[in-house]
Design a protein that fits this description.
This protein has eleven helices and 13 strands. Strands 2-1-3-4-5-11 form a six-stranded parallel beta sheet, with helices on both faces. It is globular.
Length: 339
């Protein structure tokens, strides 16, 4: 049977309209978020960032897939690159709208070589210590949260608790993250003047045995500040000594007041600190990611952020062990107290 031209035109028009209507009512692609951590899933920093992300995304219909490079334990550059390449392949295959990239290793190994400058996905970084220009940030598809330690505020807190702590040694590992942190401290000293202590020195070490010697040598001082201690190798085995083991040994021999700057010190026996919050890093990054699920927004429209929250932390068990009397008004004003 032959159809009149007019009828054929009507049928074609109806098909076009029906297709347009179907597209209009078809459900949008489900929201998919990839979270890529530089470190392992047992690291308290990673866990607290995840909690912050979950808080920010509460009630938002999104599927979250989480990956870890484990860069503190797997120190083989080739192995790390293979892991990053595998994650990049998953991103290409599953097409998440947003990737949250946590800490510096992920920027170096995944975002810069595989994601920077692409139309999709949008990338939100957090926990980054390096100067952002190192990675070419910000970029059209990249925004995020830089990391800042509250060193000045922490040392002021220590002096309020222990006024005699005029000489403090900052002890940290030889990692690249420590290098960035120390560069920030030196810039802060240049811009803001001396800290509350009269003699502030820095000791950077590579191995657990060097750390032990530095801790023991500092017992003649008046205070110890702890930076990072997640990449210390055992000189006998070449293996990385777990941070928990470093902290346990340090607690057994240390007799001077201690101060820390990141929220993992809660579990490591340090006396006090104005702590950076991994939860805050995750909360800010999660809020930015939530906005970027709007297809009309691009990462470059969201301004870069830096963490601001400082958690005033006290460990009264440590104070008792060290024979330190903490003024009651400081206990009252603290955000978090271990008793």
């Amino acid at each position: 049977m032959r159809w009149p031209v007019a009828c054929l035109f009507c049928i074609l028009s109806l098909c076009v309209v029906a297709t347009a209507l179907a597209d209009a009512v078809a459900p949008a692609r489900p929201a998919l978020l990839f979270v890529v951590h530089s470190y392992d899933d047992d690291f308290i920093w990673c866990r607290n960032i995840d909690r912050g992300l979950q808080t920010a995304l509460r009630g938002f219909p999104v599927t979250i897939r989480t990956f870890h490079l484990d860069a503190k334990h797997d120190l083989d550059p080739a192995s790390q690159r293979r892991k990053a390449l595998a994650i990049a392949a998953r991103i290409t295959e599953e097409k998440p709208q947003v990737v949250v990239a946590v800490d510096d290793a992920v920027q170096e190994l995944l975002v810069v070589p595989h994601l920077l400058g692409r139309d999709t996905p949008q990338v939100v970084f957090c926990g980054v210590n390096a100067p952002l220009a190192r990675y070419g940030y910000p970029a059209p598809n990249v925004t995020g949260v830089s990391e800042r330690w509250h060193v000045r505020e922490s040392l002021s807190l220590l002096r309020k608790i222990v006024p005699t702590a005029r000489r403090v040694v900052l002890l940290t590992d030889g990692s690249e993250s420590s290098d960035y942190m120390l560069a920030d401290i030196r810039a802060d000293l240049r811009q803001g003047g001396p800290y509350a202590v009269e003699d502030f020195s820095i000791r950077q070490v590579q191995t657990f045995q060097q750390w032990q010697k530095a801790v023991l040598a500092s017992q003649e001082g008046q205070g110890l500040a702890f930076g990072l201690y997640f990449s210390l190798r055992d000189e006998a085995t070449g293996s990385v000594v777990p941070a928990e083991a470093v902290a346990r040994w340090t607690d057994t021999v240390n007799r001077v007041p201690t101060v820390g700057f990141a929220d993992y010190v809660r579990e490591h026996g340090q006396l006090c600190g104005v702590l950076e919050s991994a939860h805050e890093q995750g909360l800010i990054a999660g809020g930015m990611a939530r906005l970027l699920f709007d297809p009309m927004l691009r990462a470059q429209t969201l301004p870069l952020r830096t963490n601001q929250e400082g958690i005033v932390f006290l460990n009264l068990k440590t104070a008792e062990r060290l024979g330190v009397s903490v003024p009651f008004e400081i206990i009252q004003s603290a955000s978090e107290v271990i008793q």
